[in-house]
Amino acid sequence: MSAAASEELRDELVAKARGLASLFEAEGPKAEKLRQPTDEAIAAVAAAGLYPLLVPRRNGGHQLDLDAYVDVGIALAHGDASLAWVTMLYIHHDWMFSQFPEAFQKEIFADGPHIPAPACPSFTASAKRVEGGYRLSGRWSWATCVMHSTWVIAGVLCEDDQEMRFFAVPIEEAEVHDVWQMSGMAATGSNDFSLDDVFVSDERTMSIPDLYAGAAPGVAIHPNVPAIRTPMMVLLMLGATIVLTGQARVSVERLRDRMQQRVLMYQTGGKQADNAAAQMRLGRLDLLVEQTEMFLRAAVAEIMARRDAGEATLEARAANAARMAMVARQCRDIISEASDVAGTSSHRDDNPLQRSLRDANVLYSHMMYSIDERMETHGRVLLGLDVNTIIL
Length: 392
Prior knowledge:
Structural class: alpha+beta
Strand order of the largest sheet: 5-6-2-1-3-4-7
Largest sheet: 7 strands, mixed
Number of strands: 7
Strand content: 5-15%
CATH topology of the largest domain: Butyryl-CoA Dehydrogenase, subunit A, domain 3
Low-confidence stretches: none
Shape: globular
């Protein structure tokens, strides 16, 4: 596909994502009550063809890159954080299936380029080496995407060589546990699943360190697909950061609309839009969102450039993780301040600002965004010291 054709495809998919934002906004409250994505939302994204965004064309996907991932995600996040996050992870997990050994890729993509699945590690589960593969037992938490999945991707520390590996398992061999009772991101349905002595053949497993380093089997299988060479943690941190960025933007837009309607109490009936202090805070928040999105896009451009130049070094990955944590915190703070300026009524159950705030607080609390840890790692690398984390 030519560069012009790829750009045209990207624009088409971004336009579809913008069109889905209104559906996400309508389905979000329903999904929150269900504590999982609605069937309508999941089906609409599939119909729009967004899930295989990063999947190589060889596997039936669109073979686009991280810049398209950013554009699609920010557009979707204008509608709802939970549904956008689930979509970003489905895109990410289809990318992961394109990293497994070639025999399994041929099997898994035979029926189409989208394989709905959660992907999460467990440090309490077990993987025992047996002839031809492994036997897995244990429980996995935070399994976003599990409620509409056909497979699961389970990360385990192997007993024989102490290496972390991902294993692909059909959902029929897993048991899903209804535990997702959350104040925010409730619509993701990120329940637990467990496996009981399940056999997984060698071709359905891959090394997590290799995936984190951008050196999984998929890199050799798809040598001309830049997105496949992206280190996995870059993509994971980017997905949630994109959602928070889109939510920050729409929160400021909702504040602006609210200010034009809100009559301030105890101030002789004047509208908030006429209040100088509120005007200044709105203006500041608008520019903070712009600054934050510019920083995010610049970081993504550098990630792509370094990756394509073969310079995705430890130093570069540590700096990128710190940047993503900064963007995530900034977005959470913007959403919080927008809710603050909008007043007490922004916390009504039917006000989308309060759901954005709850969702942002929960999404930002993800361990990968621990600002102190990300800055510590960045600082240690700058000083030439060893790192003590796998979040790179």
